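Minutes, project check-in
Item: structure for the 231-residue chain
Input as provided by the requester:
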Amino acid sequence: MENKDKNPHAGHRQRLRGRFLASGLEGFSDHEVLELLLCYAIPRRDVNDMAHALIDRFGSLAGVLDAPVSDIMSVEGIGEQAAVLIKLIPQMTRKYQLSGIKGSGKPILDTVDKAGEFIIPHFQSMTEEVAYMLCLDKRCRLICILTIGGGDEFKAVASARNLVELAVSHKADSVLLAHNHPGGVPMPSVEDVAATRRIREALGAVGVALTDHLIVVGNEFASMNECGYMD
């Protein structure tokens, strides 16, 4: 008698893998992406219901990937191993994007589009507010990128005096600021505008230009300079 596959879901899993090998994730629904991923964390179980439950709980694939491990584990059937694998995906994506940036040398960020394209990957998978300062030379070539705080911490850490000291110590001719608004809109708050103007004035006193302050949300950004907030 022919031996039956001990895993009754092996055929379905193989079909998912076959579709992926043939055309990547093209045509996959959000729950199918999760189902394929869960196949590697939860063997010999039907993970279809779990994938649907995750989407129902968090609303979308992005919602699942952005959720804390503890919240992911609150979904029935999802243990620590599966939750860690899910959380690994956005973190690996960010590492992958940043690796490509680092491998391209020191970019020249002489336009707002170049600056936005460069900085957006630094905020991928960030669920808390984070702020960066980019130090540039006379050609607008990047000297370094520094984390200067986030959220309420940004207002304390990114003081004008601290940023002036950092800019001078790295011999910057100009500076570009960027921070994100997780779950918000790419527009500056009243506090953002006030802080930016204060920082620009302090940097200008030591001969360092503040060229822009970018507000990032997802894959979108707004330039405070282009929107007139730095006037």
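Outcome recorded: Confidence is low (pLDDT under 50) at residues 1-5.
No further action items on this chain.
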